[in-house]
Amino acid sequence: MKAPGAAMFIPEDADLAHLRQAACDCHGCDLYRHATQTVFGAGPPDADVVLIGEQPGDQEDVLGEPFVGPAGRLLDRALADVGIDRDAVYVTNAVKHFKFVERGKRRIHKQPGRTEVVACSAWLNAELDLLRPRLVVCLGAIGAQAVLGPSFKVSTRRGEVIDTADFRVIATVHPSSVLRAPDRTAAYEAFVADLRIVREELGKPAAER
Ligand code: URA
Ligand code: SF4
Its family (predicted)? Predict the structure, then answer.
Protein backbone atom coordinates (compact mmCIF):
# COMPACT_ATOMS: atom_id res chain seq x y z
CA MET A 1 0.00 0.00 0.00
CA LYS A 2 1.16 3.50 -0.76
CA ALA A 3 2.02 5.51 2.34
CA PRO A 4 -1.03 7.64 3.17
CA GLY A 5 0.72 10.76 4.49
CA ALA A 6 0.09 12.27 7.89
CA ALA A 7 -3.15 14.12 7.12
CA MET A 8 -5.45 11.25 8.11
CA PHE A 9 -3.80 11.03 11.56
CA ILE A 10 -4.44 14.67 12.44
CA PRO A 11 -7.39 15.27 14.78
CA GLU A 12 -9.77 18.13 14.03
CA ASP A 13 -9.90 21.16 16.30
CA ALA A 14 -6.88 19.96 18.27
CA ASP A 15 -4.62 22.24 20.28
CA LEU A 16 -0.85 21.73 20.26
CA ALA A 17 -0.90 19.27 23.15
CA HIS A 18 -3.47 17.11 21.34
CA LEU A 19 -1.55 17.30 18.09
CA ARG A 20 1.60 16.17 19.86
CA GLN A 21 -0.28 13.27 21.41
CA ALA A 22 -1.83 12.22 18.09
CA ALA A 23 1.54 12.40 16.31
CA CYS A 24 2.80 9.56 18.55
CA ASP A 25 0.63 7.18 16.50
CA CYS A 26 1.39 8.54 13.03
CA HIS A 27 2.03 5.96 10.32
CA GLY A 28 1.96 8.50 7.53
CA CYS A 29 5.19 7.18 6.01
CA ASP A 30 7.54 4.30 6.76
CA LEU A 31 9.89 6.18 9.09
CA TYR A 32 7.92 5.27 12.23
CA ARG A 33 8.90 1.63 11.73
CA HIS A 34 12.54 1.94 12.77
CA ALA A 35 12.66 5.11 14.83
CA THR A 36 12.17 5.03 18.61
CA GLN A 37 9.40 7.61 18.76
CA THR A 38 7.83 10.66 17.13
CA VAL A 39 9.71 13.84 18.00
CA PHE A 40 7.15 16.63 17.87
CA GLY A 41 7.84 20.36 18.07
CA ALA A 42 8.41 21.95 21.47
CA GLY A 43 8.05 25.43 22.91
CA PRO A 44 5.46 27.93 24.06
CA PRO A 45 2.17 28.04 22.07
CA ASP A 46 2.39 31.86 21.95
CA ALA A 47 5.91 31.94 20.48
CA ASP A 48 6.62 34.73 17.95
CA VAL A 49 9.23 32.63 16.21
CA VAL A 50 9.17 29.05 14.95
CA LEU A 51 12.44 27.34 14.05
CA ILE A 52 12.19 24.48 11.58
CA GLY A 53 14.98 21.93 11.28
CA GLU A 54 15.19 18.77 9.19
CA GLN A 55 14.40 15.71 11.29
CA PRO A 56 15.33 14.49 14.77
CA GLY A 57 18.84 13.12 15.17
CA ASP A 58 20.04 10.11 17.14
CA GLN A 59 19.78 11.77 20.56
CA GLU A 60 16.49 13.47 19.78
CA ASP A 61 15.08 10.09 18.74
CA VAL A 62 16.01 8.61 22.12
CA LEU A 63 14.97 11.59 24.24
CA GLY A 64 11.84 12.58 22.30
CA GLU A 65 12.69 16.30 22.12
CA PRO A 66 13.90 18.35 19.13
CA PHE A 67 17.42 19.83 19.01
CA VAL A 68 18.82 18.35 22.21
CA GLY A 69 21.92 16.74 20.64
CA PRO A 70 25.13 18.34 19.28
CA ALA A 71 23.33 20.46 16.63
CA GLY A 72 20.92 21.65 19.32
CA ARG A 73 23.76 22.69 21.60
CA LEU A 74 25.32 24.74 18.82
CA LEU A 75 21.92 26.29 18.08
CA ASP A 76 21.47 27.17 21.78
CA ARG A 77 24.85 28.89 21.83
CA ALA A 78 24.17 30.86 18.64
CA LEU A 79 20.73 31.99 19.87
CA ALA A 80 22.27 33.10 23.15
CA ASP A 81 25.02 34.98 21.27
CA VAL A 82 22.47 37.10 19.39
CA GLY A 83 20.18 37.55 22.41
CA ILE A 84 17.24 35.36 21.38
CA ASP A 85 15.68 33.56 24.34
CA ARG A 86 15.66 29.84 23.48
CA ASP A 87 12.75 29.24 25.84
CA ALA A 88 10.60 31.78 23.97
CA VAL A 89 10.91 30.09 20.56
CA TYR A 90 9.06 27.04 19.27
CA VAL A 91 11.38 24.49 17.69
CA THR A 92 10.26 21.77 15.33
CA ASN A 93 11.31 19.70 12.32
CA ALA A 94 10.06 19.17 8.77
CA VAL A 95 10.05 15.41 9.42
CA LYS A 96 9.18 14.01 12.85
CA HIS A 97 10.86 10.62 12.81
CA PHE A 98 14.60 9.88 12.68
CA LYS A 99 15.76 8.37 9.39
CA PHE A 100 19.04 6.50 9.61
CA VAL A 101 21.17 3.65 8.34
CA GLU A 102 22.86 1.25 10.75
CA ARG A 103 26.64 0.92 10.63
CA GLY A 104 27.58 -1.60 13.28
CA LYS A 105 26.32 -0.15 16.54
CA ARG A 106 25.98 3.38 15.17
CA ARG A 107 22.94 4.91 13.58
CA ILE A 108 23.96 7.30 10.83
CA HIS A 109 21.63 10.12 9.83
CA LYS A 110 20.08 9.74 6.40
CA GLN A 111 18.48 12.74 4.74
CA PRO A 112 14.71 12.42 4.38
CA GLY A 113 13.39 12.23 0.81
CA ARG A 114 10.76 14.45 -0.73
CA THR A 115 8.12 11.74 -0.16
CA GLU A 116 8.74 11.80 3.58
CA VAL A 117 8.84 15.59 3.74
CA VAL A 118 5.53 15.77 1.88
CA ALA A 119 3.99 12.97 4.00
CA CYS A 120 4.97 14.77 7.20
CA SER A 121 4.10 18.30 6.05
CA ALA A 122 0.55 18.00 7.43
CA TRP A 123 1.99 18.02 10.97
CA LEU A 124 4.16 21.02 10.26
CA ASN A 125 1.27 22.90 8.67
CA ALA A 126 -0.99 22.04 11.61
CA GLU A 127 1.65 23.38 14.01
CA LEU A 128 2.04 26.60 12.02
CA ASP A 129 -1.74 27.06 11.77
CA LEU A 130 -2.05 26.93 15.55
CA LEU A 131 1.07 28.91 16.36
CA ARG A 132 0.56 31.71 13.80
CA PRO A 133 4.12 32.97 14.32
CA ARG A 134 5.40 36.36 13.15
CA LEU A 135 8.55 34.80 11.86
CA VAL A 136 9.62 31.37 10.69
CA VAL A 137 13.31 30.49 10.66
CA CYS A 138 14.29 27.56 8.47
CA LEU A 139 17.44 25.71 9.46
CA GLY A 140 18.86 24.01 6.37
CA ALA A 141 17.51 23.03 2.96
CA ILE A 142 14.96 20.45 4.09
CA GLY A 143 13.29 22.80 6.56
CA ALA A 144 13.39 25.66 4.05
CA GLN A 145 11.97 23.60 1.19
CA ALA A 146 9.17 22.32 3.44
CA VAL A 147 8.00 25.92 3.79
CA LEU A 148 9.20 27.63 0.60
CA GLY A 149 8.99 24.82 -1.96
CA PRO A 150 11.41 22.25 -3.36
CA SER A 151 13.33 24.64 -5.62
CA PHE A 152 14.36 26.99 -2.79
CA LYS A 153 18.14 27.32 -2.42
CA VAL A 154 19.52 28.22 1.01
CA SER A 155 23.00 28.78 -0.45
CA THR A 156 21.91 31.79 -2.50
CA ARG A 157 19.09 33.13 -0.31
CA ARG A 158 20.22 32.67 3.29
CA GLY A 159 19.54 35.66 5.51
CA GLU A 160 16.94 37.14 3.16
CA VAL A 161 13.64 38.25 4.74
CA ILE A 162 10.91 36.62 2.66
CA ASP A 163 7.25 37.58 2.92
CA THR A 164 4.60 34.89 2.58
CA ALA A 165 0.86 35.27 3.04
CA ASP A 166 1.03 33.99 6.62
CA PHE A 167 4.40 35.01 8.07
CA ARG A 168 7.90 36.19 7.27
CA VAL A 169 10.55 33.59 6.65
CA ILE A 170 14.31 33.71 7.03
CA ALA A 171 16.30 30.67 5.94
CA THR A 172 19.79 29.84 7.09
CA VAL A 173 22.04 26.79 7.17
CA HIS A 174 21.51 23.81 9.43
CA PRO A 175 23.55 23.96 12.66
CA SER A 176 25.00 20.51 11.93
CA SER A 177 26.52 21.91 8.72
CA VAL A 178 28.41 24.37 10.95
CA LEU A 179 29.73 21.43 12.99
CA ARG A 180 30.95 19.73 9.79
CA ALA A 181 32.40 22.83 8.09
CA PRO A 182 36.15 22.85 7.32
CA ASP A 183 36.36 26.36 8.80
CA ARG A 184 34.05 26.03 11.76
CA THR A 185 34.71 29.52 13.11
CA ALA A 186 33.76 31.19 9.83
CA ALA A 187 30.72 28.97 9.41
CA TYR A 188 29.61 29.76 12.96
CA GLU A 189 30.04 33.50 12.41
CA ALA A 190 27.97 33.34 9.21
CA PHE A 191 25.25 31.39 11.03
CA VAL A 192 25.21 33.95 13.84
CA ALA A 193 25.04 36.79 11.28
CA ASP A 194 21.84 35.25 9.86
CA LEU A 195 20.38 34.89 13.36
CA ARG A 196 21.18 38.54 13.98
CA ILE A 197 18.84 39.38 11.09
CA VAL A 198 16.19 37.28 12.86
CA ARG A 199 16.83 39.22 16.06
CA GLU A 200 16.50 42.56 14.23
CA GLU A 201 13.28 41.48 12.56
CA LEU A 202 11.82 40.54 15.95
CA GLY A 203 12.84 43.83 17.46
CA LYS A 204 10.95 45.88 14.89
CA PRO A 205 7.72 47.54 15.96
CA ALA A 206 4.60 46.16 14.25
CA ALA A 207 4.28 49.08 11.80
CA GLU A 208 7.67 48.36 10.18
CA ARG A 209 7.09 44.67 9.75
N1 URA B 1 18.73 18.19 13.52
C2 URA B 1 17.50 18.63 13.19
O3 URA B 1 17.23 19.07 12.08
N4 URA B 1 16.56 18.57 14.12
C5 URA B 1 16.77 18.12 15.34
O6 URA B 1 15.84 18.11 16.12
C7 URA B 1 18.08 17.67 15.67
C8 URA B 1 19.03 17.72 14.74
FE1 SF4 C 1 4.21 10.35 10.33
FE2 SF4 C 1 6.03 12.19 9.81
FE3 SF4 C 1 6.69 10.06 11.25
FE4 SF4 C 1 6.25 9.81 8.63
S5 SF4 C 1 7.92 10.97 9.63
S6 SF4 C 1 5.44 8.46 10.27
S7 SF4 C 1 4.60 11.29 8.33
S8 SF4 C 1 5.25 11.66 11.86
Answer: Belongs to the uracil-DNA glycosylase (UDG) superfamily. Type 4 (UDGa) family.
Measured from the CA of 39, which atom of ligand 1 is nearest? 6
Sheet holding 49-53, edge to edge: 90-93, 49-53, 135-139, 168-172, 161-163
* CB atoms inside a 10 Å sphere around CB 116: 23
The rounded Å distance from CA 190 to ligand 2 centre is: 32
Q: Which of 20, 60, 96 gets mutated to test ligand 2 (max ligand atoms within 8 A of its CB)?
A: 96
Pair 98, 58: CB distance under 8 Å: yes
The tens digit of pLDDT for each residue in 128-156 reads: 999 999 999 999 999 999 999 999 999 99
Strands 168-172 and 135-139: parallel
Ligand 1: centre distance to CA 114 (Å): 17
- pTM of the model as a whole: 0.96
Please report the DSSP string for 145-163 in residue order: HHHH-TT--HHHHTT-EEE
Inter-residue contact 198 to 170 (CB < 8 Å): yes
